[in-house]
Design a protein that fits this description.
Elements: H1 19-25, H2 34-53, H3 60-87, H4 101-106, H5 116-128, H6 146-170, H7 174-197, H8 199-224, H9 236-239, E1 241-244, H10 247-251, H11 258-263, H12 272-278, H13 280-285, E2 289-292, H14 296-304, H15 308-314, H16 325-335
Parallel strand pairs: 1-2
Protein backbone atom coordinates (compact mmCIF):
# COMPACT_ATOMS: atom_id res chain seq x y z
CA UNK A 1 0.00 0.00 0.00
CA UNK A 2 1.21 3.49 -0.78
CA UNK A 3 1.98 5.52 2.32
CA UNK A 4 -0.49 8.14 3.49
CA UNK A 5 1.98 10.82 4.54
CA UNK A 6 0.26 13.92 3.21
CA UNK A 7 2.34 16.60 1.47
CA UNK A 8 -0.56 18.72 0.24
CA UNK A 9 -0.75 22.32 1.54
CA UNK A 10 -2.14 23.17 4.96
CA UNK A 11 -2.20 26.53 6.69
CA UNK A 12 0.99 27.63 8.45
CA UNK A 13 0.51 30.81 10.54
CA UNK A 14 2.80 33.72 9.76
CA UNK A 15 3.80 36.89 11.60
CA UNK A 16 5.89 38.48 8.85
CA UNK A 17 3.21 39.92 6.55
CA UNK A 18 4.33 42.94 4.54
CA UNK A 19 2.34 46.18 4.20
CA UNK A 20 0.34 45.09 1.15
CA UNK A 21 -0.47 41.72 2.71
CA UNK A 22 -1.64 43.40 5.91
CA UNK A 23 -3.86 45.70 3.87
CA UNK A 24 -5.33 42.72 2.03
CA UNK A 25 -5.91 40.90 5.32
CA UNK A 26 -7.91 43.89 6.57
CA UNK A 27 -10.37 43.30 3.73
CA UNK A 28 -10.85 39.53 3.79
CA UNK A 29 -12.68 37.27 6.20
CA UNK A 30 -10.01 34.57 6.59
CA UNK A 31 -6.24 35.04 6.48
CA UNK A 32 -5.90 31.56 4.99
CA UNK A 33 -7.38 32.98 1.79
CA UNK A 34 -4.59 35.47 1.18
CA UNK A 35 -3.43 33.44 -1.88
CA UNK A 36 -6.73 34.39 -3.53
CA UNK A 37 -5.90 38.07 -3.20
CA UNK A 38 -2.52 37.50 -4.81
CA UNK A 39 -4.15 35.60 -7.68
CA UNK A 40 -6.73 38.38 -8.12
CA UNK A 41 -3.92 40.96 -8.25
CA UNK A 42 -2.08 38.96 -10.91
CA UNK A 43 -5.21 38.76 -13.05
CA UNK A 44 -6.14 42.42 -12.51
CA UNK A 45 -2.71 43.88 -13.23
CA UNK A 46 -1.31 41.46 -15.80
CA UNK A 47 -3.90 39.19 -17.46
CA UNK A 48 -6.66 41.75 -17.96
CA UNK A 49 -4.45 44.63 -19.25
CA UNK A 50 -2.73 42.28 -21.71
CA UNK A 51 -6.12 40.99 -22.82
CA UNK A 52 -7.51 44.51 -23.35
CA UNK A 53 -4.46 45.57 -25.35
CA UNK A 54 -5.31 42.84 -27.87
CA UNK A 55 -8.46 44.75 -28.85
CA UNK A 56 -6.24 47.60 -30.07
CA UNK A 57 -3.13 45.78 -31.25
CA UNK A 58 -3.98 42.22 -32.20
CA UNK A 59 -1.46 39.65 -33.40
CA UNK A 60 -2.07 35.93 -33.72
CA UNK A 61 1.63 35.40 -32.98
CA UNK A 62 1.07 36.93 -29.55
CA UNK A 63 -2.57 35.99 -28.86
CA UNK A 64 -2.19 32.23 -29.30
CA UNK A 65 0.86 31.78 -27.02
CA UNK A 66 -0.67 34.11 -24.42
CA UNK A 67 -3.93 32.16 -24.45
CA UNK A 68 -2.15 28.81 -24.13
CA UNK A 69 0.03 30.12 -21.31
CA UNK A 70 -2.89 31.67 -19.46
CA UNK A 71 -5.05 28.56 -19.79
CA UNK A 72 -2.23 26.24 -18.75
CA UNK A 73 -1.15 28.27 -15.72
CA UNK A 74 -4.20 30.30 -14.75
CA UNK A 75 -7.47 28.56 -15.62
CA UNK A 76 -7.27 25.85 -12.96
CA UNK A 77 -6.27 28.17 -10.10
CA UNK A 78 -8.89 30.73 -11.13
CA UNK A 79 -11.77 28.23 -11.30
CA UNK A 80 -10.79 26.75 -7.94
CA UNK A 81 -10.58 30.24 -6.45
CA UNK A 82 -14.07 30.87 -7.86
CA UNK A 83 -15.13 27.54 -6.41
CA UNK A 84 -13.84 28.27 -2.92
CA UNK A 85 -15.13 31.82 -2.81
CA UNK A 86 -18.55 30.61 -3.96
CA UNK A 87 -18.67 28.37 -0.90
CA UNK A 88 -17.09 30.88 1.48
CA UNK A 89 -17.20 34.60 0.73
CA UNK A 90 -13.76 36.13 0.40
CA UNK A 91 -14.35 39.70 1.58
CA UNK A 92 -15.77 40.91 4.88
CA UNK A 93 -19.39 42.02 5.12
CA UNK A 94 -18.47 45.72 5.10
CA UNK A 95 -16.72 45.16 1.77
CA UNK A 96 -19.35 42.78 0.41
CA UNK A 97 -19.50 44.59 -2.94
CA UNK A 98 -15.97 43.31 -3.59
CA UNK A 99 -17.32 39.75 -3.62
CA UNK A 100 -18.60 40.53 -7.12
CA UNK A 101 -15.03 41.04 -8.35
CA UNK A 102 -14.23 37.37 -9.00
CA UNK A 103 -17.44 36.20 -10.74
CA UNK A 104 -18.19 39.46 -12.58
CA UNK A 105 -14.87 41.21 -13.08
CA UNK A 106 -12.41 38.37 -13.54
CA UNK A 107 -14.55 35.38 -14.51
CA UNK A 108 -15.29 36.35 -18.13
CA UNK A 109 -11.55 36.41 -18.90
CA UNK A 110 -11.45 32.71 -17.98
CA UNK A 111 -14.63 31.73 -19.78
CA UNK A 112 -16.83 31.84 -16.68
CA UNK A 113 -20.14 33.58 -17.24
CA UNK A 114 -21.23 35.55 -14.13
CA UNK A 115 -23.49 33.83 -11.58
CA UNK A 116 -23.75 30.55 -13.50
CA UNK A 117 -20.98 28.75 -11.62
CA UNK A 118 -22.56 29.59 -8.26
CA UNK A 119 -26.00 28.58 -9.50
CA UNK A 120 -24.87 25.30 -11.01
CA UNK A 121 -22.33 24.19 -8.42
CA UNK A 122 -23.66 25.51 -5.13
CA UNK A 123 -27.41 25.67 -5.63
CA UNK A 124 -27.80 22.56 -7.80
CA UNK A 125 -24.85 20.16 -7.78
CA UNK A 126 -24.28 20.03 -4.04
CA UNK A 127 -28.01 19.94 -3.37
CA UNK A 128 -28.48 16.92 -5.66
CA UNK A 129 -25.14 15.16 -4.95
CA UNK A 130 -24.68 13.45 -8.36
CA UNK A 131 -28.08 11.75 -8.08
CA UNK A 132 -30.67 11.72 -10.84
CA UNK A 133 -31.82 15.34 -10.38
CA UNK A 134 -28.21 16.55 -10.62
CA UNK A 135 -27.87 18.07 -14.09
CA UNK A 136 -24.23 16.92 -14.14
CA UNK A 137 -25.06 13.41 -12.90
CA UNK A 138 -22.61 10.79 -14.22
CA UNK A 139 -24.52 7.66 -13.19
CA UNK A 140 -26.17 6.89 -16.51
CA UNK A 141 -22.93 6.87 -18.51
CA UNK A 142 -20.23 4.26 -19.02
CA UNK A 143 -17.50 6.35 -17.47
CA UNK A 144 -14.55 4.93 -19.38
CA UNK A 145 -16.07 5.52 -22.84
CA UNK A 146 -15.11 8.66 -24.73
CA UNK A 147 -18.34 8.67 -26.73
CA UNK A 148 -20.33 8.68 -23.50
CA UNK A 149 -18.29 11.60 -22.21
CA UNK A 150 -18.87 13.56 -25.40
CA UNK A 151 -22.63 13.00 -25.09
CA UNK A 152 -22.35 14.25 -21.51
CA UNK A 153 -20.31 17.30 -22.53
CA UNK A 154 -22.41 18.37 -25.51
CA UNK A 155 -25.66 18.03 -23.55
CA UNK A 156 -24.19 20.36 -20.94
CA UNK A 157 -22.67 22.71 -23.49
CA UNK A 158 -25.89 23.23 -25.46
CA UNK A 159 -28.56 22.68 -22.81
CA UNK A 160 -26.79 23.10 -19.48
CA UNK A 161 -28.00 26.60 -18.73
CA UNK A 162 -31.53 26.01 -20.02
CA UNK A 163 -31.71 22.84 -17.93
CA UNK A 164 -30.44 24.80 -14.94
CA UNK A 165 -33.03 27.51 -15.56
CA UNK A 166 -35.78 24.90 -15.69
CA UNK A 167 -34.40 23.32 -12.50
CA UNK A 168 -34.70 26.64 -10.68
CA UNK A 169 -38.19 27.12 -12.14
CA UNK A 170 -39.28 23.72 -10.74
CA UNK A 171 -37.74 24.57 -7.38
CA UNK A 172 -39.29 28.06 -7.35
CA UNK A 173 -35.82 29.58 -7.05
CA UNK A 174 -36.67 32.57 -9.22
CA UNK A 175 -33.86 34.71 -7.83
CA UNK A 176 -31.21 32.28 -9.08
CA UNK A 177 -33.02 31.75 -12.37
CA UNK A 178 -32.88 35.48 -13.05
CA UNK A 179 -29.21 35.65 -11.98
CA UNK A 180 -27.99 32.88 -14.27
CA UNK A 181 -29.98 34.23 -17.22
CA UNK A 182 -28.60 37.72 -16.66
CA UNK A 183 -25.04 36.41 -16.34
CA UNK A 184 -25.20 34.06 -19.33
CA UNK A 185 -27.05 36.42 -21.67
CA UNK A 186 -24.98 39.38 -20.50
CA UNK A 187 -21.73 37.57 -21.32
CA UNK A 188 -22.81 36.80 -24.88
CA UNK A 189 -24.25 40.28 -25.39
CA UNK A 190 -20.85 41.66 -24.39
CA UNK A 191 -19.14 39.29 -26.84
CA UNK A 192 -21.48 40.34 -29.67
CA UNK A 193 -20.67 44.01 -29.05
CA UNK A 194 -16.94 43.38 -28.77
CA UNK A 195 -17.03 41.26 -31.94
CA UNK A 196 -17.87 44.47 -33.81
CA UNK A 197 -14.74 46.08 -32.36
CA UNK A 198 -12.29 43.23 -32.93
CA UNK A 199 -13.54 39.72 -33.64
CA UNK A 200 -10.11 38.12 -33.32
CA UNK A 201 -9.54 39.52 -29.84
CA UNK A 202 -13.09 38.62 -28.75
CA UNK A 203 -12.54 35.07 -29.94
CA UNK A 204 -9.20 34.63 -28.16
CA UNK A 205 -9.92 36.59 -24.97
CA UNK A 206 -13.46 35.42 -24.24
CA UNK A 207 -14.93 32.76 -26.52
CA UNK A 208 -12.12 30.20 -26.72
CA UNK A 209 -11.63 30.31 -22.91
CA UNK A 210 -15.42 29.87 -22.56
CA UNK A 211 -15.32 26.63 -24.56
CA UNK A 212 -12.19 25.36 -22.79
CA UNK A 213 -13.56 26.19 -19.33
CA UNK A 214 -16.83 24.36 -19.93
CA UNK A 215 -15.04 21.35 -21.36
CA UNK A 216 -12.60 21.33 -18.44
CA UNK A 217 -15.31 21.64 -15.81
CA UNK A 218 -17.22 18.70 -17.25
CA UNK A 219 -14.08 16.58 -17.61
CA UNK A 220 -13.21 17.35 -14.00
CA UNK A 221 -16.71 16.55 -12.75
CA UNK A 222 -16.73 13.33 -14.80
CA UNK A 223 -13.55 12.13 -13.08
CA UNK A 224 -14.63 13.34 -9.63
CA UNK A 225 -17.75 11.21 -9.93
CA UNK A 226 -16.47 8.36 -12.11
CA UNK A 227 -16.01 5.54 -9.58
CA UNK A 228 -19.50 5.02 -8.20
CA UNK A 229 -20.90 2.30 -5.96
CA UNK A 230 -24.23 1.45 -7.59
CA UNK A 231 -26.07 0.22 -4.45
CA UNK A 232 -25.36 3.44 -2.50
CA UNK A 233 -25.02 6.31 -5.01
CA UNK A 234 -25.85 8.97 -2.41
CA UNK A 235 -22.92 8.00 -0.16
CA UNK A 236 -20.27 10.70 -0.63
CA UNK A 237 -17.48 8.26 0.23
CA UNK A 238 -18.32 6.18 -2.84
CA UNK A 239 -19.83 8.66 -5.29
CA UNK A 240 -16.69 10.84 -5.32
CA UNK A 241 -12.96 10.23 -5.28
CA UNK A 242 -9.95 11.79 -3.58
CA UNK A 243 -6.53 12.56 -5.06
CA UNK A 244 -3.73 13.13 -2.57
CA UNK A 245 -0.12 14.32 -2.80
CA UNK A 246 -0.56 15.85 -6.25
CA UNK A 247 1.08 18.95 -7.71
CA UNK A 248 -2.45 19.93 -8.74
CA UNK A 249 -3.43 20.30 -5.07
CA UNK A 250 -0.66 22.85 -4.54
CA UNK A 251 -1.78 25.09 -7.39
CA UNK A 252 -5.53 24.47 -7.16
CA UNK A 253 -6.16 24.75 -3.44
CA UNK A 254 -6.50 21.06 -2.51
CA UNK A 255 -9.24 20.45 -5.04
CA UNK A 256 -8.25 16.77 -5.09
CA UNK A 257 -10.05 16.14 -1.81
CA UNK A 258 -13.45 15.79 -3.43
CA UNK A 259 -14.88 13.25 -1.01
CA UNK A 260 -14.17 15.54 1.92
CA UNK A 261 -15.58 18.47 -0.03
CA UNK A 262 -18.91 16.71 -0.57
CA UNK A 263 -19.01 15.60 3.05
CA UNK A 264 -18.49 19.17 4.26
CA UNK A 265 -18.96 21.63 1.37
CA UNK A 266 -18.02 24.66 3.47
CA UNK A 267 -14.83 23.14 4.88
CA UNK A 268 -11.86 25.42 4.25
CA UNK A 269 -9.47 24.16 1.59
CA UNK A 270 -6.50 24.15 3.99
CA UNK A 271 -8.35 21.76 6.31
CA UNK A 272 -8.97 19.05 3.75
CA UNK A 273 -5.72 17.06 4.12
CA UNK A 274 -6.25 17.07 7.89
CA UNK A 275 -9.86 15.87 7.53
CA UNK A 276 -8.68 13.03 5.30
CA UNK A 277 -6.07 11.88 7.80
CA UNK A 278 -8.35 12.19 10.82
CA UNK A 279 -11.20 10.27 9.16
CA UNK A 280 -9.20 7.67 7.24
CA UNK A 281 -11.03 4.84 9.04
CA UNK A 282 -14.33 6.06 7.56
CA UNK A 283 -12.74 6.12 4.13
CA UNK A 284 -11.61 2.53 4.71
CA UNK A 285 -14.99 1.41 6.02
CA UNK A 286 -16.67 2.75 2.89
CA UNK A 287 -14.03 1.40 0.49
CA UNK A 288 -13.41 4.87 -0.93
CA UNK A 289 -11.41 5.36 -4.12
CA UNK A 290 -8.19 7.27 -3.45
CA UNK A 291 -5.39 8.04 -5.90
CA UNK A 292 -1.95 9.42 -5.12
CA UNK A 293 0.30 11.60 -7.28
CA UNK A 294 -2.28 12.34 -9.95
CA UNK A 295 -5.31 14.58 -10.47
CA UNK A 296 -8.82 14.54 -11.88
CA UNK A 297 -7.88 15.62 -15.38
CA UNK A 298 -5.25 12.92 -15.73
CA UNK A 299 -7.74 10.40 -14.31
CA UNK A 300 -10.29 11.59 -16.90
CA UNK A 301 -7.78 11.19 -19.73
CA UNK A 302 -6.71 7.74 -18.55
CA UNK A 303 -10.34 6.64 -18.44
CA UNK A 304 -10.88 7.94 -21.96
CA UNK A 305 -7.97 5.87 -23.29
CA UNK A 306 -8.72 2.99 -20.88
CA UNK A 307 -5.23 3.07 -19.37
CA UNK A 308 -6.07 1.14 -16.25
CA UNK A 309 -2.41 0.29 -15.64
CA UNK A 310 -1.77 3.95 -14.85
CA UNK A 311 -4.81 4.17 -12.60
CA UNK A 312 -3.85 0.99 -10.76
CA UNK A 313 -0.30 2.25 -10.26
CA UNK A 314 -1.63 5.41 -8.57
CA UNK A 315 -4.44 3.71 -6.67
CA UNK A 316 -4.09 3.76 -2.88
CA UNK A 317 -5.22 0.43 -1.45
CA UNK A 318 -6.32 1.90 1.86
CA UNK A 319 -7.75 -1.43 3.04
CA UNK A 320 -4.85 -3.53 1.71
CA UNK A 321 -7.43 -5.81 0.11
CA UNK A 322 -5.91 -6.35 -3.33
CA UNK A 323 -3.05 -8.76 -3.96
CA UNK A 324 -2.42 -7.92 -7.61
CA UNK A 325 -2.72 -5.04 -10.04
CA UNK A 326 -5.30 -7.06 -11.96
CA UNK A 327 -7.56 -7.13 -8.91
CA UNK A 328 -7.32 -3.34 -8.60
CA UNK A 329 -8.20 -2.94 -12.29
CA UNK A 330 -11.18 -5.26 -11.95
CA UNK A 331 -12.42 -3.24 -8.96
CA UNK A 332 -12.07 0.08 -10.81
CA UNK A 333 -13.87 -1.27 -13.88
CA UNK A 334 -16.85 -2.29 -11.75
CA UNK A 335 -17.00 1.21 -10.27
CA UNK A 336 -17.14 2.97 -13.67
CA UNK A 337 -19.96 0.82 -15.05
CA UNK A 338 -23.12 2.54 -16.22
CA UNK A 339 -25.93 2.72 -13.67
CA UNK A 340 -29.29 2.64 -15.44
CA UNK A 341 -31.31 5.72 -14.55
CA UNK A 342 -33.73 7.68 -16.69
CA UNK A 343 -32.65 11.18 -17.50
CA UNK A 344 -34.85 13.76 -19.23
CA UNK A 345 -33.51 17.02 -20.62
CA UNK A 346 -36.33 19.61 -20.64
CA UNK A 347 -37.16 21.56 -23.76
CA UNK A 348 -34.87 24.55 -24.00
CA UNK A 349 -37.80 26.94 -24.42
CA UNK A 350 -39.69 25.91 -21.30
CA UNK A 351 -37.68 28.17 -19.00
CA UNK A 352 -39.13 31.24 -20.63
CA UNK A 353 -42.69 30.25 -19.76
CA UNK A 354 -44.05 31.70 -16.56
CA UNK A 355 -40.93 33.55 -15.42
CA UNK A 356 -41.97 35.90 -12.62
Amino acid sequence: MKNLNITDPIFVPRNDYNFLERFALSLIRDERDLPFIKLCAYILFIVIPVSIVQFFYFSWWFAVPFLLFNIATGLGPFILMLHNTSHRKLFKQEYNFLNNLIPWGLGPFYGETPETYFGHHIMMHHAENNLIDDLSCTMNYQRDRFIDFMKYFWLFFFFGMSDLGYYFKRKNRWKFLRKIMFGEIGFFAMCILLWQVNWQATLMVFLVPFFIARFGMMAGNWAQHAFLHAPTPANCYVNSLTCINAAYNKTCFNDGYHIGHHLRPNMHWTEMPIEFQENIEKYKANNAVVFEGTDFFVVWFMLMIKNYDYLANHFVDINEQFKTKEEVIAFLKVRVAKIEVQRVHPNVNVIFNGIH
